[in-house]
Design goal:
single chain; 413 residues; alpha/beta; TIM Barrel; Rossmann fold; 2 domains; 8-stranded parallel beta sheet; 3-stranded parallel beta sheet
């Protein structure tokens, strides 16, 4: 007898909001009317949420000052999204966006502070998150508050140890929760792929999978040269978000912990424009085959206008809409696939077969594109198996395996 489908909540589908006019520099001259146009376009695709970002230097130009007017802008954007029928996740410390790093001046030059280890810098970020949480608390369309976007991108200029990262995350997650108080809302954090398969990276899989209310993953096809290594139409590329979801589930101590594919996209030339609609469809359908998936949030809503200089080439074409606001073929593919998944409304059964991952922090790359474990998982998937992932340390934990519905273990290669 087959296992019945999961009764988990319906999947969420959304997009990371990039303002069409001015990119995130639009916060310097925030225009609610223009933002509402963008958000209405997003809602018109049938998506149900957006993830939004303000800029850290504009929110907190002094360590002891969080600008009320900038916070009000962010609250206004959340309300505008709600008026369009969209729920909102707010990222707090930006931090890093689309290859640019944004630091307040009190962290730089003569005033340089390590943002991960300096006690006063950590407390300043906690102040920002508490302030944002209080301002957003109670807003009916708020999904929650995230610490910031891919904060581990900042480690090159802010050296940090694993223990210091854990302290940093624990402190800021606590501050975000304090700010939201008793209000409904997730408290989360995010990291780019090095946290999952970068050898000795100080942001660890355990931190991503065990801290905060759910796990977020950002499975990008350019990480570890995945698309160039295997090809833009390859199974490895089409199943990358699914794989990232299952890898994240393996590191969680709670077998029921949800995983959010919070960023994935079709960057040219890694994914040629002609292949982008098929890539989007395959990514959503395959990720939806994970029983513990919370949802998928595409990167991003609107292309960066080419009048803006110095972005990496791939950043100019990642949108569902071009820089004039016209929907691209990938937008139609995404919208249609989301509608199909919502109509089907059947969540998959747990995966009974799992591939065993045995690695150390220094050999974590075996689980990334080009690694032996990654390739073994993809071979199983192409052969028709729907493999989960189990850490070697959990293979004797019968209660844990039963909770995940796993009945067969295969040694990773």
């Amino acid at each position: 007898m087959s296992t019945p489908p999961s009764s988990a909540p319906a999947l969420r589908f959304g997009v990371n909001y990039t303002p069409r006019r001015g990119w995130f520099h639009a916060w310097h001259d925030f225009d609610p009317g223009l933002a509402r146009e963008d958000l209405a376009q997003i809602a018109g695709l049938g998506l149900d949420h957006v993830r939004v970002f303000h800029l850290w230097p504009l929110l907190q130009p002094n360590r002891a000052l969080v600008r009320a007017s900038a916070v009000d802008q962010l609250v206004r954007l959340v309300d505008l999204a709600g008026e369009c029928g969209l729920d909102v996740l707010v990222d707090g410390v930006q931090g890093h966006l689309s290859s640019f790093d944004f630091y307040p001046e009190w962290t730089r030059s003569w005033h340089h502070r390590n943002v991960f280890t300096d006690p006063e810098a950590i407390e300043a970020q906690a102040l920002l998150l508490r302030t944002l949480g209080r301002a957003l608390s109670g807003h009916p369309h708020l999904i929650g508050l995230q610490l910031g976007n891919e904060l581990n991108n900042l480690v090159e200029h802010n050296p940090v140890t694993v223990a210091e990262v854990d302290h940093y995350l624990d402190t800021l997650l606590g501050a975000a929760r304090d700010g939201l108080g008793e209000a409904r809302g997730l408290v989360t954090h995010s990291a780019y792929d090095a946290a999952w398969y970068g050898d000795d990276h100080p942001f660890t899989p355990e931190a991503s999978a065990r801290k905060g209310d759910l796990t977020t993953v950002h499975p990008w096809v350019f990480s570890a040269d995945c698309a160039r290594r295997y090809g833009p139409r390859s199974p490895e590329v089409h199943h990358l978000a699914e794989y990232g979801t299952e890898l994240a589930a393996a590191y969680a101590t709670d077998p029921a912990r949800p995983v959010w594919v919070q960023e994935t996209g079709a960057p040219e030339p890694h994914i040629p424009a002609a292949d982008a609609p098929d890539f989007a469809r395959a990514t959503l359908l395959n990720a939806a085959g994970c029983a513990h998936l919370w949802g998928v949030t595409w990167w991003c809503s609107h292309d960066v206008d080419r009048s803006l200089a110095d972005f990496p080439e791939l950043e100019y074409t990642l949108g569902l809409f071009d820089s004039t606001g016209r929907p691209k073929p990938i937008a139609e593919a995404l919208s249609t696939t989301v509608a199909e998944l919502r109509t089907a409304a059947v969540r998959p059964a747990p995966r009974a077969t799992a591939l065993v991952l045995d690695c150390t922090p220094s050999t974590r790359s075996v689980s990334g594109p080009g690694g032996a474990f990654f390739d073994a998982w993809m071979r199983l998937r192409q052969e028709g198996t729907r493999p989960a992932v189990v850490l070697a340390e959990r293979v004797e934990d019968t209660a844990y395996l039963a909770a995940r519905g796993i009945t067969e273990l295969i040694e990773g290669k």
